[in-house]
Amino acid sequence: MKIDFAKFAVPQSGAVVVGVWEDRVLTAAARRLDKETGGAISRAVAAAPRFHGKKNELLPLIGPPN
Fold first, then answer.
1. Rounded distance, CA 58 to CA 66, Å?
2. pLDDT digit string, tens, across residues 14-32
3. Which of 11, 12, 32, 44 is the most exposed place for a label (fewest CB within 10 A)?
4. Is 7 helix (H, G, I), strand (E, B) or coil?
5. What values do phi and psi take at 41, rounded to 5?
């Protein structure tokens, strides 16, 4: 596996991992990606009642179109 750190840009393919703090608080990177995707991350977090952002919790999302 190769992990790269680069300047922020919404990728056209691949995977993006962003953090969410406990109690569903988006990290700075997650907030920026949420803004760039028209609120897709915050809507997904709000629609997942079992996800709280605790250690070892994951919420996989399929990227929105465009």
1. 24
2. 778 889 999 999 999 899 9
3. 12
4. coil
5. -70, -45
Place of tokens 């109690």: 23
User: 3-class DSSP state for residue 25?
Assistant: strand
Q: What is the DSSP letter of 63?
A: P
56/66 Cα distance (integer angstroms): 29
Q: Find the angle CA(7)-CA(32)-CA(3) to the nearest 5 degrees.
A: 40
Task: Answer for the pair 28, 2: CB distance below 8 angstroms, yes or no.
Answer: no
**In 10 A of CB 56, how many CB atoms?**
4
Q: Per-residue pLDDT tens for 37-50?
A: 889 999 999 999 99
Distance CA 18, CA 34 (A): 10
Structure token pair of residue 37 = 């995707």
Identify whether the C-beta of residue 22 lies closer than 8 Å to the C-beta of residue 54.
yes
